[in-house]
Amino acid sequence: MSNSHNQQMKLIHVAKRDLKLADEDYRRIIREVGGSASGSAKDLTDRGANRVLDHFKTLGWMPSKLGGQALPGLKGQRVGMATQKQLALLLSLWSDAARTPTEAAFNHFLQSRFGISHYRFLPLHKVSSIKAALDSMIAQKQTEATQTTVQQAKA
After folding, report:
1. One-character DSSP codes across 65-128
2. How buried is 152 (Cβ within 10 angstroms: 0-12 exposed, 13-18 middle, 19+ buried)?
3. Per the CB 3.0–4.6 Å rule, which of 36, 86, 93, 105 could disulfide with 100?
C-alpha cells in the first residue's frame, strides 16, 4: 500500500470518529459511495477512498489539523442544531429515498417541505419529522418497485 493510500485510510477513520457515525451508517457509505462490496475501508481503491472522503466533507467534516495548524471552528455541536451523526443519517436515507440523490436535491426537499434552506441549518427539533418523511419515501419507492416487478412478471 502506498503512503497516500495509508493516509486516506487514516483520514477515513478520523472522519468516522469526528462525525460520530454508527458502524452501520459508516459501512453503508463505504459500500455505496466508495464501492467496497465488503463495507470495509481496507478494500477501497484510491478513487473509492477519495469519493468517501469527499462525501464526508459534504456531511460537514473537515480535518481538524492542516499542516500541523489547528483549524478553529471545525469541531463542536451547535446548540439547538442537528448533530453531525444525525445529518449523516439523513443524507444516507436521502440517498436511498430520492430519485436524484444529490446534496442540491436534498436541500431543495428541505426547503420545499420544511422551510430549511440547507441541511447545515437543520434545527434539532425537525430531525425526527424529516427522518419520518424520508422513511415514508423509501417505503413508497420499495412499494413501487415491487408493483413494477409484479406487472413485469404478468406480462
Report:
1. EETTEEPTTSSS--TTB--HHHHHHHHHHHHHH-SS--HHHHHHHHHHHH--SSGGG-BGGGHH
2. exposed
3. 105
Distance, in Å, from the CA atom of 117 to the CA atom of 17, rounded to the nearest integer, reads 27
For residues 98 and 106, what is the distance between their CA atoms, to the nearest angstrom?
8
* pLDDT 10s digits, 33-91: 999 888 888 899 989 988 998 888 888 777 655 444 443 433 556 778 888 788 888 98
Place of cell 434552506: 117
Spatial contact of 82 and 124, defined as CB atoms under 8 Å apart: yes
Helix (H, G, I), strand (E, B) or coil at 8: helix
